[in-house]
Amino acid sequence: MCESHPLLAFFMNAADSRFPPVDGRVTVLPPLPGGLECSVAFTGHAVIATAMTKQAVHAQSPDGFGGSLSPDFLRHLAGPKGWIDVTDATLTARGIGGPPQLAELPDADDHPRVRHARWLRTNVQVYGDERGLITLADGLAGRRELSIELHRTEDSSRGHGRSLLTDALSLVPEGEPVFAAVSPGNARSLRAFLACGFTPIGSEVLLRPERG
User: Fold this and answer.
1) How many Å apart are CA 52 and CA 54, to the nearest integer?
2) Which InterPro entries does the record cross-reference, listed alphabetically (predicted)?
3) What are phi and psi for residue 151, nearest 5 degrees?
4) How far is CA 189 from the centre of its chain?
5) Is 107 or 3 the better-scoring residue by pLDDT?
6) CA dihedral 128, 133, 138, 144 (to 10 degrees)
7) What pLDDT, in 10s, does the model give residues 95-117?
8) Is domain 90-201 annotated with CATH 1.10.4100.10?
9) Which regions of the chain carry the CATH code 3.40.630.30?
């Protein structure tokens, strides 16, 4: 997903606290590169990137008040055998720049977090240290996207997530938006992102459809 997509403007605007109208409507955009599609929910407005026609989407009566993320609608988008990812909270923060606080990890290709990132994103870079690893990549709609995974140690809950995220923001130029998709059920991770200045702007689901 290295090329910009019309959905990127929605994310960049949201990073500046400029959101779609709270009108309950659904905006339908073209599909994402690489065979991916998505349903993104902002407050009172949804944006769906899909190869389906607008008529086919609206025939299912999704709405901007949560209906665009309903299981039945997502299954309709993906088709009977298509892949549907989990629903994530969409968060954003600003890079702090300065000297990089994390070293690049060139030998982490076999790590599950890195394999997952490469399956969905492009230009994946991996950084980290004894606390865990960070991936930076061109993600959904071409946005700059960050993910984190701590190494499993006895003291891995002692602020390592927050300190690693803070250091990761040094990898992003000062003032540049960076985004993260975090499972709401992963409360520890969500608290770490919020404590490091990330702001919720919506929610999202990625899909890899398989239609007849």
Assistant:
1) 7
2) Acyl_CoA_acyltransferase
3) -70, 145
4) 14
5) 107
6) -80
7) 999 999 999 998 888 888 899 89
8) no
9) 90-201
